[in-house]
Specification:
about 425 residues, alpha+beta, OB fold (Dihydrolipoamide Acetyltransferase, E2P), BirA Bifunctional Protein, domain 2, 2 domains, eight-stranded mixed beta sheet, five-stranded mixed beta barrel, about 30% helix, RNA-binding
RNA sequence: UCCUCGGUAGCUCAACGGCAGAGCGGGUGGCUGUUAACCACUAGGCUGUAGGUUCGAGUCCUACCCGAGGAGCCA
């Protein structure tokens, strides 16, 4: 058997080959059946004629969708066929005749599709999104590799709270009592910079937020970077180079997939440094001029983010938020102690926050006060204080949400399609 | 936790308080180049659950369950 991937048809024109895959669609016209075969590398049209197939023809013309088959035939260049090539079948083996497949050719609702996510992943659109996800993650790793970062795999069971204690999933941990699923790898990355300088992690994070919106999952993937001797300004420059790199490379590599997703890539092509920088003070001013009744001191809401991103045609940083709305580890502003040296990066086209980052507080006394002000237990942060005792240096870092970034790149309405098996407030199956 | 919208055939949706329907999918038959193929016929229903109003409820009222979008919170 001359086994062949559909992707490689172009190299096998005229040859007789065998493909192995699934019946993605079927049409028939009397004595000719057209089978659309998907094999994981691509899809092609296979032609089965009554004369060539003999007794098997009757079974072929009523083969249920998603039946698994091998098809042997000649690869022929054919402009009428989707893909430009087709397979003229001389033999076909049915590996399994599928039961009636629940996903049809017309539209379905989200509840139905999410309940059969294990089957939905076979759809052309979902296949395209998973390919873009693969490319995006690959370029994330490539960027860090090229820029001298070392991968540090941070723990998922944690005892120190990274962000907000109310959003933790707790797990019974033998005789040690409760541990929590990681909300961030940041605190552990901070420990690693003292040996490795620039480090990053990429993995799942968990937040027990009772959020039901197009931007939220309870389990999502985050890539975080942490850099010794990086101050606030260096941090933002790195982030804009990073985002530009991953967006440009992913868009270039996944042109076919993005076309299938009907994503207009012109706005993505403009994602080049420098990004806009707006201070929190300026943001409040802009918002109040645009009809928002936001008060200085409160965090920006979803509508506020939309107003600001609509003013710019590429991502925009909002810098230096009030200390009281941000996490305890952010460095206090040198001139204005009510602010911290942080920035959120908002993606354009209404996609909103994709990065949160900051310079970290390297002064142990200010850090202790911040932990107490946030109602956290300093005893649990003993190891974290050590990092401020043994050669503390200025350092900064950031975290980028893979699903939100992918949702933006693919132009999707909801992050649930960007991860193979989404975990949401009311959904943990399949 | 709160606000808004929804739940009718396997799926997507119609139906003025008055006989519960269509498209897709399934079944049967037809068609030699189809492109979500097409044409004909056909099966398929405790209208989310429990009460109530009414001569009569898918439709109006109450409670609950489930889902979607959003707020808060966040990547």
């Amino acid at each position: 058997m001359n086994a062949c991937l559909i992707r490689d048809f172009i190299k096998h024109a005229g040859e007789t080959v065998t493909i192995r895959g699934w019946v993605a669609n079927r049409r028939s016209s009397g004595k000719v059946s057209f089978l659309i075969i998907r094999d994981g590398s691509g899809t092609c049209q296979a032609i089965a004629e009554r004369e060539a197939m003999g007794d098997l023809y009757e079974e072929i013309r009523r083969l249920p969708l998603e039946s698994s088959v091998t098809v042997t035939g000649q690869v022929v260049e054919e402009p009428r066929s989707p893909g430009g090539y087709e397979l003229h079948a001389t033999g076909l083996t049915i590996l399994q005749k599928s039961e009636e497949f629940p996903i049809g050719k017309k539209e379905h609702g989200p509840d139905f599709l999410l309940g059969i996510r294990h089957l939905w992943l076979r759809s052309p659109r979902q296949i395209a999104i998973m390919r873009v996800r693969d490319a995006l993650v690959r370029y994330v790793r490539e960027f860090f590799h090229r820029n001298g970062f070392t991968l540090i795999d941070t723990p998922i069971f944690t005892t120190t709270v990274g962000e907000d204690s109310s959003n933790l999933f707790s797990v019974d941990y033998f005789d040690l009592g409760k541990t929590y699923l990681s909300q961030t790898g940041q605190l552990y990355l901070e420990a690693a910079i003292f040996g490795l300088g620039k480090v990053y992690c990429l993995g799942p994070t968990f937040r027990a937020e009772r959020s039901k919106t197009r931007r939220h999952l309870t389990e999502f993937w985050m890539v975080e970077g942490e850099m010794a001797f990086f101050e606030h300004r260096d941090n933002l420059e790195l982030q804009e180079n990073f985002v530009s790199f991953i967006v440009q490379n992913t868009v270039r590599e996944c042109a076919d997939e993005l076309r299938k997703l009907e994503r207009d890539i012109e706005p993505l092509k403009r994602v080049e440094p420098p990004f806009h920088r707006v201070s929190y003070d300026e943001a409040i001013e802009i918002l109040r001029k645009n009809g928002s009744d936001i008060e200085w001191g409160s965090d920006l809401g979803g509508d506020d983010e939309t107003i600001i991103t609509n003013l710019y045609d590429k991502p925009v940083f909002i810098e230096c938020y009030p200390k009281k709305v941000k996490a305890f580890y952010m460095k206090q502003h040198p001139e204005r102690p009510e602010l911290v040296m942080c920035a959120d990066l908002l993606a354009p086209e209404g996609y909103g926050e994709i990065i949160g980052g900051s310079q970290r507080e390297d002064d142990p006394e200010i850090l202790l006060k911040a932990i107490l002000d946030n109602g956290l237990d300093p005893e649990r942060y003993g190891w974290y204080f050590d990092l401020r005792k043994y050669g503390s240096v200025p350092h900064s870092g950031f975290g980028l949400g893979i699903e939100r970034t992918l949702s933006w790149i693919c132009g999707l309405k909801h992050v649930r399609e960007t991860i193979p098996f989404p975990r949401m407030l009311y959904r943990a199956y399949p």
